[in-house]
C-alpha cells in the first residue's frame, strides 16, 4: 500500500405483512474463513483493493448499511461467496463490523448465520431443523443454506431496541422463476452488539383482497424521526422485479409492514434507498444489471412517502469516463447501496459517503460482472448549491470523522491500481465470455486510452512491493494517450507525477487542457533510469480540466508513470 499523498480537500456543500415463525435467538458465529493477512492500520479508505478487518481477515459485508451509534459507526452486510461447482451455495452470514474512523473496521460478530440443511445434496438433512445451529430452531427453514439471505438493514427504534430486517427465502416458488422472498424481522434489546431474536417473516402488500401479498426484491430501511419505512422493489407472483419501487411504512413498533404509500410501475430500478439532505429527501437506486456495476440514479421529494411524478436522473460522476469497452462510468464498477452522512463531533459539518458493492467475485457464467478489485468501494458524494449530487471516483478517501470532512486526490487511480495483485484486475465487459486474461493487463481503470492501445499497459513495479505503474511501450512504432477529465473549482492547482523512461521519443508529454487557458505541456521525453518527479502548475477557470499523457515513439521506446496527484496551490 502506498503512503497517502496530500490531496485537495473537498467537503460536501451541505449544512448539512406477516407469517409468524416464532422467536428464534440468533447466536454468535465467526465470519466465513478465508486466509488472513498481517493487519496494517489504514490511513484512508482504499478503494479498488480487498478490504481487511483489524485482525487481517477479509471483510465480507455486502448489500447492507452503516448506522452511527454515539461516536461509533456500525456496518452490517451479508457474507456471501460464489456457488462455483457446488450443488448448494455456501452458507451466508450477516456480519457486523464497527469503526470510529470509517477507515479501520473491527469484526464484532455474525448476527445471523444460515445453517447446513443438506450441503451434501443427498436428499437427507445433515442437521434436523429442530437441532439446527440457530438456537431455538428454524421450523420454517428460512435460514437454510442455499436460500437467499441479503439486504440487511440496521435501525435504532426510539425506545432503544435495534431492528434488523433481512430479505429471506420465503418458501414460495413463483410460476416463472421469481425468488419468492419475504422480509425477516429481527430485534435486539441488549444493544447493537447483543443477541438478535428472529421475530417473524412477512410478505409485502398483504391486503384483505390479497391475503398472500407479494414477494419482495432488493430494498432498504429508512428512518425519519420516530417513523420507519421499507423502501423496496416489489416482485410479482409470476416474475421478479416487475412491480416497481415501493415505499411502505412500518408499524409504530417497527415490527410490521403496513400497506405501501407509494408505488412505481416502472421496473428499471432496484436497491432503492432514501437519504435526507436538509429538507429534501433523495431516493437513490441502481439499474437492473445482474452482478454488474450500474449507473446510480436519484430523484427528490419533500415527502418520503410520495414520489409520484418525480423523475429519475442519472448521477453525475467525477472524473467523467466516456467511451466504451473499458468504460467504468457505471458508478466505478459498483452497485449502489446507501449514501450516508459523516457528521462532525460538534454537529456543524457533514460530508457524505457512497456505500457501493462490487461483485467481481461472481465473475463468470452468463451474467456480466464489474471490473475492479474488492467487494466494496466507498466514494465521496458532494451536493452543489442547487442540490445536485456528484459521485467522485476517488481511489483513496481520507476521512476525518471528528471534523466531518473527506479529502481525496481528484485523479482517480493515479497510482494505477496500487494495493492489490495485478492479476485480479478484470475489464468491464458486456459479456463475461469475451474476457481474455492475455489482454486484460491493457485495461487501465478510470483512464481513457486512445491510439495504439496495445502499447499502453498496467504492470507491476519491480522496485516496490504491491504496487503498479502505467507503461507506454510498443513492439512496433506507436502513438497513444491516456486521459481523464475531472471537475475542479476555479483556482490554482499543481499536477505532479513520477516518471522514468528511455527518452528519444518523437514526442512525449503531459498535457493539461480544457481548463480555460489553452493547453499546457510538460515534457517526459528525457532519459531517466530512476524515478523523477515532474510537476506543472495550472489555473482553472472553466471548473473542469482534461489531463493525461501522450507518447509517440519507435519500437522499443518506453515510458513509465506513477503517483499522479493534483493539489491546490
Descriptive notes:
0% of the residues lie in helices and 44% in strands. With 569 residues, the protein is mainly β. It has two domains: 8-408, 5 Propeller (Tachylectin-2, Chain A); 447-568, Galactose-binding domain-like (Jelly Rolls), CATH 2.60.120.260. A five-stranded antiparallel β-sheet has the order 2-11-10-9-8, with no helix packed on it. A five-stranded mixed β-sheet has the order 20-24-23-22-21, with no helix packed on it. A five-stranded antiparallel β-sheet has the order 27-30-35-32-33, with no helix packed on it. The protein is elongated, with a radius of gyration of 25 Å. Belongs to the glycosyl hydrolase 43 family.
CATH architecture of the largest domain: 5 Propeller
Quickly name the level 1 CATH class of the largest domain: Mainly Beta
Strand proportion, as a percent range, falls in 35-45%
Report the oligomer.
single chain
Short description:
The chain has 569 residues and is mostly beta strands.
What descriptors fit this protein?
elongated; 5-stranded antiparallel sheet; single chain; 569 residues; 5-stranded mixed sheet; Tachylectin-2, Chain A; mainly beta; Glyco_hydro_43; hydrolase activity, hydrolyzing O-glycosyl compounds; 44% strand; Galactose-bd-like_sf; disordered N terminus; Jelly Rolls; 36 strands
Secondary-structure topology with pairs:
Elements: E1 8-9, E2 18-26, E3 45-46, E4 62-69, E5 72-79, E6 93-99, E7 106-113, E8 149-156, E9 162-169, E10 181-188, E11 196-202, E12 215-224, E13 227-235, E14 245-249, E15 262-263, E16 269-277, E17 280-287, E18 296-301, E19 313-314, E20 316-318, E21 335-343, E22 350-357, E23 376-383, E24 389-392, E25 396-400, E26 405-408, E27 448-451, E28 456-460, E29 468-473, E30 478-487, E31 491-501, E32 507-513, E33 520-523, E34 528-540, E35 544-553, E36 558-568
Parallel strand pairs: 20-24
Antiparallel strand pairs: 1-26, 2-11, 3-25, 4-5, 5-6, 6-7, 8-9, 9-10, 10-11, 12-13, 13-14, 14-15, 16-17, 17-18, 18-19, 21-22, 22-23, 23-24, 25-26, 27-30, 28-29, 29-36, 30-35, 31-34, 31-36, 32-33, 32-35
Amino acid at each position: 500500500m502506498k503512503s497517502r499523498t496530500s490531496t485537495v480537500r473537498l467537503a460536501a456543500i451541505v449544512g448539512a405483512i406477516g407469517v409468524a415463525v416464532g422467536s428464534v435467538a440468533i447466536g454468535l458465529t465467526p465470519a466465513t474463513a478465508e486466509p488472513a493477512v498481517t493487519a496494517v492500520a489504514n490511513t484512508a479508505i482504499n478503494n479498488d483493493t480487498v478490504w481487511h478487518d483489524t485482525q487481517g481477515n477479509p471483510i465480507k459485508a455486502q448489500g447492507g448499511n452503516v448506522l452511527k451509534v454515539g461516536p461509533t459507526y456500525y456496518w452490517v452486510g451479508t457474507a456471501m461467496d460464489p456457488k462455483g461447482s457446488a450443488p448448494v451455495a455456501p452458507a451466508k452470514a450477516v456480519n457486523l463490523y464497527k469503526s470510529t474512523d470509517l477507515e479501520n473496521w473491527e469484526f464484532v460478530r455474525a448476527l445471523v448465520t444460515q445453517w447446513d440443511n443438506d450441503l451434501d445434496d443427498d436428499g437427507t438433512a445433515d442437521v434436523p431443523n429442530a437441532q439446527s445451529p440457530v438456537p431455538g430452531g428454524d421450523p420454517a427453514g428460512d435460514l437454510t443454506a442455499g436460500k437467499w439471505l441479503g439486504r440487511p438493514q440496521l435501525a435504532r427504534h426510539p425506545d432503544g431496541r435495534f431492528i434488523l430486517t433481512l430479505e429471506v427465502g420465503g418458501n414460495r416458488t413463483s410460476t416463472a422463476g421469481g425468488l419468492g422472498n419475504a422480509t425477516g424481522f429481527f430485534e435486539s434489546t441488549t444493544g447493537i452488539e447483543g443477541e438478535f431474536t428472529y421475530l417473524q417473516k412477512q410478505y409485502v402488500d398483504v391486503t384483505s383482497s390479497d391475503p398472500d401479498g407479494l414477494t419482495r426484491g432488493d430494498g432498504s430501511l429508512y428512518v425519519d424521526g420516530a417513523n420507519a419505512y421499507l423502501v423496496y422493489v416489489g416482485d410479482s407472483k409470476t416474475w421478479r422485479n416487475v412491480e416497481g419501487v415501493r415505499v411502505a411504512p412500518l408499524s409504530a413498533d417497527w415490527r410490521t409492514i403496513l400497506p405501501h404509500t407509494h408505488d412505481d410501475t416502472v421496473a428499471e430500478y432496484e436497491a432503492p434507498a432514501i437519504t435526507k439532505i436538509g429538507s429534501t429527501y433523495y431516493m437513490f437506486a441502481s439499474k437492473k444489471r445482474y452482478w454488474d456495476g450500474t449507473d446510480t440514479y436519484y430523484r427528490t421529494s419533500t415527502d418520503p412517502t410520495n414520489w409520484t411524478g418525480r423523475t429519475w436522473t442519472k448521477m453525475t460522476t467525477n472524473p467523467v469516463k466516456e467511451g466504451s469497452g473499458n468504460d467504468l462510468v457505471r458508478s466505478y464498477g459498483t452497485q449502489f447501496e446507501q449514501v450516508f452522512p459523516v457528521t462532525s463531533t460538534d454537529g456543524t459539518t457533514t460530508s457524505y459517503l457512497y456505500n457501493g458493492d462490487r461483485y467481481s467475485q461472481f465473475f463468470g457464467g452468463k451474467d456480466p460482472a464489474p471490473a475492479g478489485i474488492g467487494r466494496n468501494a466507498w466514494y465521496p458524494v458532494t451536493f452543489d448549491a442547487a442540490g445536485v449530487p456528484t459521485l467522485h471516483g476517488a481511489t483513496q478517501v481520507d476521512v476525518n470523522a471528528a471534523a466531518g470532512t473527506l479529502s481525496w486526490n481528484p485523479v482517480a487511480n493515479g497510482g494505477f491500481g496500487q494495493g492489490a495483485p495485478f492479476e485480479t484486475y478484470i475489464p468491464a465487459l458486456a459479456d463475461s465470455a469475451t474476457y481474455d486474461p492475455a489482454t486484460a493487463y491493457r485495461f487501465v481503470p478510470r483512464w481513457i486510452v486512445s491510439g495504439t492501445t496495445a502499447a499502453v499497459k498496467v504492470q507491476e513495479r519491480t522496485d516496490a512491493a504491491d504496487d503498479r505503474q502505467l507503461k507506454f511501450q510498443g513492439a512496433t512504432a506507436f502513438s497513444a494517450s491516456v486521459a481523464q477529465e475531472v471537475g475542479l473549482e476555479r483556482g490554482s492547482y499543481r499536477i505532479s507525477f513520477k516518471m522514468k523512461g528511455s527518452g528519444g521519443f518523437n514526442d512525449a508529454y503531459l498535457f493539461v487542457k480544457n481548463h480555460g487557458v489553452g493547453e499546457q505541456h510538460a515534457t517526459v521525453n528525457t532519459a531517466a533510469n530512476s524515478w523523477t518527479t515532474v510537476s506543472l502548475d495550472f489555473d482553472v477557470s472553466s471548473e473542469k480540466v482534461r489531463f493525461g499523457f501522450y507518447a509517440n515513439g519507435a519500437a522499443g521506446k518506453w515510458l513509465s508513470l506513477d503517483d499522479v496527484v493534483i493539489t491546490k496551490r
